[in-house]
UniProtKB/TrEMBL annotation:
Keyword Repeat tagged: no
Native source species: Methylocapsa polymorpha
4Fe-4S Mo/W bis-MGD-type domain boundaries: 7-65
Protein name (database record): Molybdopterin oxidoreductase family protein
Keywords of the record: Iron, Iron-sulfur, Metal-binding
Family label: Belongs to the prokaryotic molybdopterin-containing oxidoreductase family.
């Protein structure tokens, strides 16, 4: 008989791109493999709760399809033909191609490319040290927060808010623009506690009846991109019915009288025509938050997926200022706590050698960049070589037709450091096998809460997998890049960064398991004033000067309204494209992560689109029929799922399914635009207008699709 494994429980932190950044207890079996993963009960935010996909992480880390050895391409790009090579050969080939690109086209022709496949500060951001030391094209990461964050900061002046644990002390929790049950499970932990212990009401505002809406006391299902209209109508009612806190407004806001006058015409009836809600629903919501001063507005990342998302986020955040909810424990508005950590990553990122004159290429415009768009290239030369870590642009980047065309270029050298054979890895010239979070040391910041967490190396990686830091340092040596960070170990870099940032050292973090960085109540609630020179919350944002990193304004930012409003910058339906499509998160995937695990794929099934029964009837579509969606960017085929929990004219496709699972190999982001979104860039994943029709046989479909695109689209 086989002896039972020796199980130890070890601490860690979830590395994935999720605001919850859960503290974990990991079962380690015989010191070699992992079993079940649990939430750490002692951490006051995670409180022992984690999502199901991370709980079964053993399925992912011990997956038989993990990449284990370096590979070189032996066939055409995208053919899947690779041969095993040594690490020395792989690194030498990458370095030789980078040096050749630099000689022939200049250092800016090399573009190190990364994002949030891990949120570990060292393993995610260390690639920037190589970028800056070599003066390569910088990477402008815009695909996630760039629309929502400026909207929140436009009012407060700072990306921080009340302690998220205060949701448990609220009388009303408004979960707006996030399906928290699926994407931020710990939000529900604290909201439901408030309901049980205080009789709090939970309000959910979203664009379809999802798992969070099902658990709410009041669920408002509005049209995509109309949140600003709802917020303005709510504030109209608050002023009209004497529910605005005028003392608070006088002391803490910049233009309350001008704002009140502006809202006089933003009635519930006005907003109903825009949002699709009934006026009485808007009135009920306004009276609920107006009478329950301890209202906590938990504002999500759905705001960061619309072309008018920054305006909508700002408008929603203004409600707490009108009611004076900021004064209350359990009240105020929260999106992310990024500013409280004041992390100084000089050594990790090489920030002391940054040359700000070097172009920063926008991630959301990957397709135009790689296909030679002069504007996207910022007037510079072409990208000739790339190293990709922690992201899968062949699946997640917008305007996939151009992305695929760009990665298919024979004159573009691509190295991909990955865990699985993703669609991006399949387009690479060199593939390097990567570690997972339990196979290296790193530290993490809780954007959705207030903890700094550590994730130690718990087991050895399989095969010849190496971590991101090892790869960057090995390439630096071959490329002649110099910086003290290249000579330091991961633990040394973590320790030095924590010390420079005022958080003690690594030994203290390891001993405590996590550090609570939450500011005092007065600071978190801005009772000493908001983070502007005049200390006032801004109803009148200065969109061109929002303190959003070192970014410069992009897109049509000068057209943004100077007071909260409905800004019609979205892709509105028209005769050619009568439907609005949103690509909302799936419960069992996280962007393109977990799409490789059997349990997640089984739970999500085939690519499908939710369509209202009335729309389906007009199209002659029944449950399970094949449906074609299209616009000027391309076409995709999905299975129709009839669903009455959204407004007619709206469609939802959940999750970023692998392109290969779609009938013609074209994933949902084929339809997403790569235009520059105001005020600081971003990708409008939930802001897509399309035509739709029932699929016919492939030959006829191809002929009809070609004709329809020449005509500019097909109406219903």
């Amino acid at each position: 008989m086989n002896a039972a494994p020796q199980i130890s429980r070890r601490p860690s932190t979830c590395p994935h791109d999720c605001p919850s950044v859960c503290a974990l207890d990991v079962e380690v079996l015989d010191g070699r493999s992992i079993g079940r993963i649990h939430g750490a009960k002692q951490q006051s935010y995670t409180a022992g709760v984690i999502c199901a996909k991370v709980a079964r992480y053993a399925e992912r880390i011990h997956h038989p399809d993990r990449l284990l050895y370096p590979l070189k391409r032996t066939g055409p790009k995208g053919s899947g033909s690779f041969a095993r090579i040594s690490w020395e050969e792989a690194l030498d080939r990458i370095a030789d191609n980078f040096l050749k690109a630099e000689r022939d086209f200049g250092a800016e022709s090399v573009w190190p490319y990364y994002y949030g496949g891990t949120m570990g500060r060292l393993m995610r951001d260390g690639i920037n040290r190589l970028t800056h030391a070599k003066r390569y094209s910088r990477f402008y990461g815009s695909i996630c927060v760039n629309i929502a964050w400026p909207g929140f900061i436009a009012g407060t002046g700072r990306m921080a808010g009340p302690d998220p644990r205060e949701m448990a002390k609220s009388d009303c929790v408004v979960i707006w623009g996030t399906n928290a049950v699926v994407t931020q499970v710990n939000v529900m932990t604290h909201a439901i506690r408030a309901r049980k212990e205080r009789g709090a009401k939970i309000v959910a505002i979203d664009i379809y009846r999802n798992a969070t809406m099902e658990r709410a006391d009041l669920a408002l299902c509005l049209k995509p991109g109309t949140d600003g209209a709802l917020a303005c109508a709510v504030m109209h009612v608050l002023f009209r019915d004497g529910l605005a806190d005028r003392d608070y407004l006088k002391k803490y806001t910049d233009a309350p009288h001008e704002f009140e006058a502006h809202l006089e015409t933003r009635t519930p009836e006005w907003a109903a025509a825009i949002t699709g809600l009934r006026p009485e629903e808007i009135e009920a919501f306004a009276h609920l938050v107006g009478r329950r001063k301890k209202t906590f507005f938990r504002l999500g990342y759905g705001f960061s997926r619309q072309r008018n998302g920054a305006v909508n986020m700002h408008a929603a955040s203004c409600i707490a200022a009108v009611t004076g909810a900021w004064k209350e424990e359990g009240g105020g508005a929260f999106h992310n706590n990024g500013a409280i950590f004041h992390m100084r990553q000089r050594l990790i990122e090489g920030l002391d050698v940054v040359d700000s004159s070097i172009r920063a290429l926008d991630q959301s415009r990957t397709g135009p960049i790689l296909t030679g768009d002069p504007d996207a290239l910022e007037g510079g030369g072409p990208v000739k070589a790339m190293l990709v870590q922690n992201t899968n642009p062949m699946s997640v980047a917008p305007d996939q037709t151009k992305v695929r065309r760009g990665f298919s270029r024979d004159d573009l050298f691509v190295a991909v450091h990955e865990q699985f054979m993703t669609e991006t890895a399949a387009m690479a010239d060199i593939i390097l096998p990567a570690t997972m979070f339990l196979e290296h040391d790193d530290f993490y910041l809780g954007g959705g809460h207030q903890h700094i967490g550590f994730g130690p190396k718990l087991i050895e990686p399989p095969g010849e997998c190496r971590n991101n830091h090892e790869v960057i340092c090995a390439l630096a040596a071959r490329l002649g890049a110099e910086h003290p960070g290249f000579a330091m170990s991961p633990r040394q870099l973590i320790d030095a960064t924590l010390r420079e940032s005022g958080w003690g050292g690594l030994a203290e973090l390891e001993e405590k398991r996590w550090l609570d960085a939450q500011p005092d109540f007065e600071t978190a609630h801005y009772l000493n004033g908001f983070a502007w020179p005049d200390k006032k919350f801004r109803f009148k944002p200065d969109w061109g000067n929002v303190p959003f990193g070192t970014s410069v304004p992009r897109g049509p930012w000068r057209d943004m309204p100077n007071l909260p409003d409905h800004w019609g910058a979205i892709e509105t339906p028209n005769e050619a494209y009568p439907f609005r499509l949103a690509t909302s998160p799936a419960r069992n995937f996280l962007n393109s992560s977990f799409t490789e695990t059997r349990s997640s794929r089984a739970a999500e099934g085939k690519p499908k689109v939710l369509i209202h029964p009335r729309d389906a009837a007009r199209l002659g579509v029944a449950e399970g029929d094949r449906l074609v969606l299209g616009n000027a960017r391309g076409q995709v085929r999905l299975m129709a799922a009839l669903f009455d929990g959204l407004q007619p004219g709206v469609m939802i496709s959940e999750g970023i399914m692998p392109n290969a699972l779609f009938e013609d190999g074209k994933g949902i982001n084929t339809l997403t635009g790569a235009d520059t979104v105001a005020p600081y860039g971003g990708a409008a994943f939930h802001d897509i207008r399309v035509w739709a029709r029932k699929a016919i046989d492939p030959v006829k479909e191809a002929d009809r699709g070609q004709a329809s695109e020449m005509a500019g689209g097909v109406s219903v």
